[in-house]
Write a structure and sequence with these properties.
With about 80 residues, this protein is mostly helical. It is built from 2 helices and 2 strands, in the order ααββ. The longest helix has 18 residues. The chain starts with a helix and ends in a 25-residue tail after the last strand. The model has no long low-confidence stretch (mean pLDDT about 90).
């Protein structure tokens, strides 16, 4: 099972918790946390972002917009894995 399949599985379990209600609803928050953490491990391509008020454009994080000065495997701000290929 890869990360994308695991996210799909947890999303289904999360929905099951919400449908059943009661104490199960509280478990949905745990799935939300796990899905958020696992989603950061799925590599995403960097996006083009402006740096401050300048006209400079550089590569940035597709999740939080943090700009990169060099190619790091993860965003230093939010932890998103970056696909530089």
């Amino acid at each position: 099972m890869d990360a994308k399949q695991a996210i799909e599985f947890m999303n289904q379990r999360r929905l099951d918790c919400i449908v059943h209600g009661g104490i199960e609803t509280a478990f949905a928050k745990h799935y939300d946390l796990a899905i958020s953490a696992l989603s950061k491990q799925v590599p995403m391509k960097p996006v083009r972002v402006n740096i401050g008020r300048t006209e400079s454009i550089t590569d940035g994080c597709p999740v939080c917009g943090w700009h990169f000065f060099d190619a790091k495997p993860y965003c230093m701000s939010c932890g998103q894995k970056i696909d530089w290929d």
